[in-house]
Amino acid sequence: MANTYTQCYVHLIFSPKNREALIKREWKNNLERYISVCIQNRKHKLLVLNAQPDHIHILIGYYLSDLIPDMVQDIKTSSTRWINENKLSAFKFEWQRGYGAFTHSKSQIDKVIKYITSQEDHHKKISFKIEYMEILRKNDIEFDDRYLFEFFD
Prior knowledge:
By secondary structure, this protein is of the alpha+beta class.
């Protein structure tokens, strides 16, 4: 539609099944590159992506004609297939069901990018479970523990 302008930023978070630390340092960069291509092929603008052993953060400039659930499903399905076909995990790799998707304003982008790029240091102080629950609370999202990622302490 002519004269339609949009600007949406979406922060995605998801985890391997059972929140296991299956994303290994040896292939983390290749996984990030693979997922980057998936995102760009769907016309989103990748701003930052950081895979940790037990979860991943992605910040995109969101292309509104693509549905978030479809995009996340595509990323998970294709990256799962890629990981398993390349035998990168000693175990059958799967992503957990569900994900977090949070919007941010342009004024928050630099802060969110810094937050995502500093995940390794961040998780020396706080667990992924606590981090994720804090994000939900900060965004006033009501949740039921039964439907969160499967956290095993």
